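anyone else get weird line breaks when pasting these?? whatever heres mine. first is seq + C-alpha cells for prot A
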Amino acid sequence: MTVYIKKVKYLTQTSINKYISKVGFSLRGEKVVEYDDLKEILPLNRDDIVVDYIGGMYRIFNYMRIERPEYDYPNALEKFYHRKIKAGVLADIFNDDGTIQKSFIKPRLETKVFTGKLIETYYDLIGLNIDRNYPIWISEPINIIAEWRTFVVNHEILAIQKYAGQFGVVYDYDVVKQAVLAWEDSPCAYALDIGLTDQGETVVVEVNDGFSVGFYGLDPYNAAIFLETRWRELTADYFNII
C-alpha cells in the first residue's frame, strides 16, 4: 500500500493538514510518497490512497468517474440547525425594494469561490466576485460564540477539536451524539461542525465530507484512519470495476 500525499509548495495555514496526514500514515507503517502532479501517481492500485487539497481531490474523483453528493446540510440533521436554511441564488437575498435581507451565505458549488459570510449590506458583497444567479446556501443568522469540528467514523465520534470562538465555553455532548445517531445514512467518515450560540444552544453548523478537511489539531494517527475510511468507501466501486 502506498499513500500519495500532495507535496506542499507554499507554507499556508492549510499546509499543516498534509503534514499531519504524512505523520499519521507513517506512524501506521505505510509507505508515503509526495507528488506534484496527478500524472505521477496514475494508474492507482486498489490498496493505494491519495491525499490532496479539495480541488485536487475533485480532479481525482472526476478521473475515476466517482459521483459524490454534497452533504453541507443533510435533512436528517434539520432539527439540530436551530435556524432556517434554504438553497437559492444570490438574487434571493434581495428584497423587492432592493434592500438586503440579513443572511449568512455560502457557495453550493464544488468549486467554492468564497468562504461563508454574513451579509448585511451591499458592502459585504464586495470581493465575492459572483453574479446574482450564483447558487448559494442561505441561512438565518444566529450568534455562534464558539465552534468545534467533530470527526465521525462509522457512526462513532472519533474526536472533537475546537477551531473558533471563545474559550471557557462548552458544547452539549449529548446533543452531538444525538446528531450523529440521527444521520443514519451518513458516509463512513465526515466532519460534523458544531457551534454554541449566545443562548447556550448546541447547534450543527454544517457538514464536511471526509476526503479532505482541516484537522484542527486532530491526532495524526486518527487523521490517517479518518482519511482512509472515507477514501475506501468512495473508491470501492471504481476498483471493483477495473
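and prot B, same format (seq, then C-alpha cells)
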Amino acid sequence: MKNIRLLPYNEAYRPSLESYYLPEAQAQYTRLPLQAVTQLGPAETGILIVHNTYPVGFFQLETENRFPNYSANSRAGLLKKFSIRVEEQGKGYAGDALCSLPAFAGKWFPELNEIVLGVNIRNESAQYVYVKAGFKDTGRRLMGPMGVQYIYSLPLK
C-alpha cells in the first residue's frame, strides 16, 4: 500500500486543491473537490486522499441515511464524488484509499456498518477499482444524472 492517508477536509488544503483538474470524460461523473466542499450538507464530510502531504484525491461521505434507494440500512454511509487528480491516476491511490476506507470509517464514523455508492454503467474503470477494493454489486439500479448507475456495497463490520 502506498503512503496514503484519508483525512477529513481541512481548509489548509484549499490552495493545493485549486489546481485539481479532471478531464471532461471523468468530470461528467463527479465534482471537483472545491465545488463539493462548498456544497456539503450537515451530514456530509469531505475526505481528502493524501499522499505524504499532498492531496491526490477526494471523496464525500454522507453519514445520515437519507438515501433509501441505495440502502435500507440505517447505518449505511453513502460514498460520492470520488476522484483522483488526473496527474496522479494509475499509481494505485484510488484502490489504496478504498482499501483504507473500513479502518477510516471505524475511527471517524463508528456508527456505520456499510458503505454504499452508485457508479455509472459506462464508467468501467471506476467499477473495476470498486470491485477490486471489495465492493459488491447489490443488483439494484438507479437512474443518475448521467444514466443508469449500479449500486455497490461494502460491509464494514
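btw re prot B: Residues 4-114 form a domain with the Aminopeptidase fold (CATH 3.40.630.30). Residues 9 and 149 are 27 Å apart (CA to CA).
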